User: Fold this.
Amino acid sequence: MQISDGKDRTILSVSGGEVRDAVWSAANHFIVFTVSSPGVPGQVFAARFPPGSGLPDNHWIEITNRANYSRRPVWSGDGRSIFYLSNRDGFWCIWKQQFDPVRGRSIGKPISIFHFHDFKQSPAEISGDMFGLSAAGDSLYLNLAEFGGTIFVGKLVRESPLSHIK
Assistant:
């Protein structure tokens, strides 16, 4: 990540794991990100990251639990909600976690925003690196895979080889 001096540097890391999907909020001065490590494919955290500080706070706030795979967190415009993709109900669905930026903690339980329990349209078939989620105004934008097919039903009529001769 580039900081104000223009130099690239690592600002978040975890031993034996990977940090990705980092998104900073100008509204609340927190960064939200996903951590993957052995046995935990994706857990969302937030950390205070005031402008000019150079590094986020080393106290990471747990947004999702370790038991469910979550990814691609994004902030709402006002910095009071985090939207993310999670399989917490067995399907890849969009969830929202309310966040108190003054106290630096999540509020209440996750709220389901949109369920993709029908595989006709779902983010499930999109690889993690290709999936995108963003928030703007009162809308969320994401890409989905759509599957469909057609089955034609008809009756085959067997004609006699001589039926076309008159």
In short: The two ends are 83 Å apart (CA to CA). The chain has one domain: 18-146. The domain at 18-146 is CATH 2.120.10.30 (Neuraminidase). DSSP finds no helices and twelve strands in the chain.
